[in-house]
Amino acid sequence: VQLQASGGGLVQPGGSLRLSCAVSGRRVSVNDMGWYRQAPGKEREFVARIFGGGTTRYSDSVKGRFTISRDNAKNVLNLQMNSLKPEDTAVYYCALRGDYWGKGTLVTVSS
After folding, report:
1. pLDDT of residue 71
2. For residues 19-33, average pLDDT
3. Where are the beta strands (DSSP E) in the chain?
4. Which of 10, 33, 60, 97 is 20 to 30 A off residue 50, Cα-Cα?
5. What are phi and psi for residue 87, nearest 5 degrees?
């Protein structure tokens, strides 16, 4: 099983980014998938999750700004991030059931 996150970069406060996680070896359509992040000097924290049945869950810090989704045809997990804040700066990781993790993609929110 392999997960490869991409889409990170530098964005100004208030801007948007879309992260993607390409998955091989498992189907995103039937597995619980999630996004986590780790800011400098902090522990990894939960960001968003989509369950096999399609239910989604978000941390309070991103609710209303981030949207998790999946493209079943491409077997890709996405995270649309809007209204980004400097405190969203972190390395973002995708995970499958908490058992498999991608290497992460860096998001920097700064003017």
Report:
1. 95
2. 94
3. 2-6, 9-11, 17-24, 33-38, 45-50, 56-58, 66-71, 76-81, 90-96, 100-101, 105-109
4. 10
5. -75, -5
